[in-house]
Write a structure and sequence with these properties.
The structure holds two protein chains of two kinds. By secondary structure, chain A is an alpha+beta fold. Chain B has a single domain, classed as Rossmann fold, CATH 3.40.50.720. An eight-stranded mixed sheet of chain B has the order 3-2-1-4-5-6-7-8, with helices on both faces. The longest helix of chain B is centred in the C-terminal third of the chain and has 19 residues. The chains are: A alpha+beta, B alpha/beta. At the A-B interface, α1 of A face β5, β6 and β8 of B.
């Protein structure tokens, strides 16, 4: 199945912004992001902690709806889904 | 203080926007108080544009002095202001820009003990801070007072903005339950300029009562690609601050 994965802001700089991924059926949202992020150590480290869990400030969206880090592990994606991953910014 | 009508000078000063909002809309701006937390990268453009738009009373809070490293983005402050309190610098500029409005500056750090007193009876809070702990504090006060919080934040060429309407939208804690790590953030002045304009536009629309606000919508600005995106927000029923519950109206 084909799904779109989009990394925003700093994540996009490190990992590339948008891509279409041909993922096996029933791939979880978390595994999709994990696979894509593992191409770049710094990019991976900015999204996942040492235990491989999402860092707590990372915001995950599936088709425009927020998905919690816990739900991302068990959320199976479907053909045509769009997944967005972004870091809030804090500066003023 | 009762509702104040526009003077002849004001009718002239604001004539081009009275074409947009009518005299009634302009009077709403004149009779409004906006609290701006921070006189830095976001607070500078926000306060300048709210001042020229004729927001009648602007309260601006900052504890810092102007540093040379601020000058690439904090357009309220000039080279000659280095070392001066940001509040003094801001007050001088805003008064010169528009002597018809009231500018109050508060040279203090916003914290739990003073935030209610500082915000007073403001009609809205502009989040022009550079850290999440203070943002969460402003969020709580906005919820408690039932006034909007106009959120903005930036880093590099990226920015985000949303308008929190207590009882109607996700609160700041629903959207950002955990702050990103602290850092000395990279920034070029155009980014807080852009996001500050989004915030100031929201304030003006809210006060005049026109248009559609960034309610339950997070605007994301990618300056590198020149793309504005938006994502839908919703209340988090388990939010530790608003509990997904309405403070001043119906349950969701």
């Amino acid at each position: 199945m084909k799904v779109t994965l989009r990394f925003f802001a700093r994540f996009g700089e490190l990992l590339g912004k948008d891509r279409v991924v041909d993922a096996p059926e029933n791939t979880s949202l978390a595994d999709l992001v994990r696979d894509a992020a593992s191409q770049n150590g710094e990019g991976y480290g900015s999204i996942f902690d040492e235990q491989g869990k999402f860092r707590d400030y990372v915001i995950l969206m599936r088709n425009g709806k927020r998905v919690s880090a816990a739900a991302a592990e068990r959320t199976a994606l479907s053909e045509g889904d769009e997944v967005a991953v972004f870091p809030p910014v804090a500066g003023g | 203080m009762g509702v104040q009508m526009l003077s002849q000078n004001e009718r002239e000063r604001y004539s081009r926007q009275i074409l947009l909002f009518g005299e009634e809309g302009q009077e709403r701006l004149k009779n409004a108080t906006i609290f701006i937390a921070g006189a830095g990268g976001l607070g500078s453009p926000v306060s300048i544009y709210l001042a020229v738009a004729g927001v009648g009373r602007i309260i601006l809070v900052d504890k810092d002095a102007v540093e040379r490293t601020n000058l690439n983005r904090q357009i309220l402050h000039y080279d000659r202001d280095i070392g001066r309190k940001k509040t003094a610098s801001a007050e001088e500029k805003l008064r010169a820009i528009n002597p018809d409005i009231t500018v109050e500056v508060l040279d203090t750090t916003i914290d739990e003990t003073n935030v209610h007193e500082l915000v007073g009876n403001a009609d809205g809070i502009v989040d022009a801070m550079d850290n999440f702990p203070t943002r969460y504090l402003l969020n709580r006060v906005a919820l408690k007072m039932g006034i909007p919080l106009f959120h903005g934040a930036i880093r590099g060429l990226y920015g985000q903005a949303t308008t929190v309407l207590p009882g109607k939208t996700a609160c700041l804690r629903c959207v950002f339950p955990h702050p990103p790590p602290k850092e000395v953030f990279p920034v070029v002045g155009v980014t807080p300029g852009f996001i500050g304009m989004v915030q100031a536009t929201e304030v003006v629309k809210y006060l005049v009562g026109t248009g559609e606000l960034l309610a339950n919508r997070l605007l994301l600005w990618d300056g590198e690609r020149a793309v504005v995106e938006e994502i839908a927000l919703e209340r988090d029923p388990s939010c530790e601050v608003c509990g997904g519950k309405n403070q001043h109206g119906d349950a969701p």
